[in-house]
Amino acid sequence: QVQLVESGGGLVQAVGSLRLSCAASGRTFRAYAMGWLRQAPGKEREFVAGISSHGGTTYYADYVKGRFTVSRENAKKTVYLQMNSLKPEDTNVYYCAATTGIATRSATYAYWGQGPQVAVSA
Predict the structure, then answer these.
(1) What are phi and psi of 74, to 5 degrees?
(2) Are 78 and 72 within 8 A, CB to CB?
(3) pLDDT (tens place) for every residue of the chain, 122 residues total
(4) What pLDDT does 95 receive?
(5) Which of 27, 32, 52, 67 lies 20 to 30 Å (CA to CA) from residue 111?
(6) pLDDT given at position 110
(7) Burial label, 104 (beta-carbon count in 10 A; 0-12, 13-18, 19+)
(8) 75-to-23, 67, 115 alpha-carbon distances in Å
(9) pLDDT at residue 36, as a whole number
(10) How far apart are alpha carbons 71 and 96 in whole angstroms?
C-alpha cells in the first residue's frame, strides 16, 4: 500500500510556474507508475501526466505537452510535476496517484493524494 501527500499548490499569475511534489510512504513506491490528474468543480477528473515506475517513460495530455514535466526520484519516494507557462484554464485541483501500469484513465489508479489547489490568474 502507498500513502501519497502532495505539496506545492497555490496561486500564480498566467505564464508563471509552479512545482508540485508528491511524497510517498511505503516500501513499494518504485513498483508503481505514477500519474498526475486534475479536476475542476463540476467536471470529470482528467489525466495530465504520467511516469513509469523506473522513470524512463513519461507521457502527457495534449493540453499540457511542452509546458509540464513529470519526474520522479525513487530514492526519495517522490514524484514531481513542473508546470510552466501556466494558463487560467490550468486552474484545478491536482492529484497525484499510483497505479501498477501506465495509465491515463483515473479509474485505473489505486492510490490517491489529497489534491492541492492550483489557481492561475489572468
Answers:
(1) -65, -35
(2) yes
(3) 899 999 999 999 999 999 999 999 987 899 999 999 999 989 999 999 999 999 999 999 999 999 999 999 999 999 999 999 999 999 999 999 999 988 889 999 999 999 989 999 99
(4) 97
(5) 67
(6) 92
(7) middle
(8) 11, 26, 23
(9) 97
(10) 12
Instruction: With beta carbons less than 8 A apart as the criterion, state whether 79 and 51 touch.
Output: yes
Distance CA 89, CA 40 (A): 9
> Any idea how long the chain is?
122
- Whose cell is 507557462? That residue is 85
Quote the cell numbers at residue 62: 495534449
Residues paired with residue 36 on neighbouring β-strands, in sequence order: 49, 96
- Dig out the grid coordinates for 66 from the structure: 511542452
- Torsions phi, psi of 89, nearest 5? -70, -5
C-alpha cell at 82: 513542473
The β-bridge partners of 19 are 82
